[in-house]
Design brief:
96 residues, 6-stranded mixed sheet, 6 strands, SH3 type barrels, globular
């Protein structure tokens, strides 16, 4: 069961790993869904940079909040899926 976390736990540069412990990349940007109302559950996704050295040749994943198993300010972000599954499922930017 995913634990509760806040958008503030997803700071830029924070490492992101799959449920298998394999590193996926780092948090590059957090995007809120402007259509989410004040009474609805917060909806956002975060962009993960799977970059090479200095971002050259990098690719991105777009991870929805629902895919986060755990996140905290002092550690990294762990997903509910493996690194390989995440690379396949989240390769396209969602429309918000």
């Amino acid at each position: 069961m995913p634990e509760t976390f806040s958008v503030g736990d997803l700071t830029l540069g924070k490492p992101v790993v799959g449920s298998d412990g394999q590193k996926i990349g780092v948090v590059n940007e957090v995007v809120n869904d402007p259509s989410a109302g004040p009474r609805s559950r917060p909806s956002f996704y975060f962009e993960v940079d799977r970059g090479r050295f200095l971002g050259i040749g990098s690719t991105h994943l777009y991870i929805p909040a629902e895919a986060v198993l755990s996140a905290d300010r002092n550690g990294g972000v762990r997903l509910t899926c493996t690194a390989e599954e995440g690379a396949q499922k989240y390769a396209h930017r969602p429309e918000v």
